[in-house]
Design brief:
25% of the residues lie in helices and 23% in strands. It is of the alpha+beta class.
């Protein structure tokens, strides 16, 4: 960044930013080996969904029966475009996340 203000704005804007399957961690660089203070990112209500059938392209339908789905994504291989067989579903609340997990854990889609 060209100024301290730009760096601080970038940290404020992008630290904790949800980038598909990961939350970004953005801090100002620390001089000479010192460590910046770690910032705590509030956990989202995101569920890992594994062992998806190759043809599954949207996990939202099964989960929406257990609460409001904020986001549902199947992860694809960038080079082949083929499903990786897993994805993530973000629910609106912890209760909905727990209900969906309890109801669908081990469920065959």
């Amino acid at each position: 960044m060209s100024t301290v203000e730009e760096a601080e704005k970038a940290v404020e804007t992008y630290n904790g930013y949800d980038l598909s399957v990961r939350l970004l961690t953005v801090n100002k660089a620390a001089p000479g080996g010192s460590q910046p203070k770690r910032r705590v990112v509030v956990n989202s209500f995101k569920i890992y969904v594994g062992y998806l059938a190759w043809q599954v392209d949207n996990s939202e339908q099964a989960f929406s029966q257990h609460g409001k789905v904020i986001d549902a994504r199947v992860i694809y291989n960038r080079e082949t475009g083929r499903s990786c067989g897993f994805g993530f579903v973000t629910m609106a609340s912890e209760t909905e996340m727990n209900d969906a997990t309890a109801a669908l854990d081990g469920h065959v889609c």
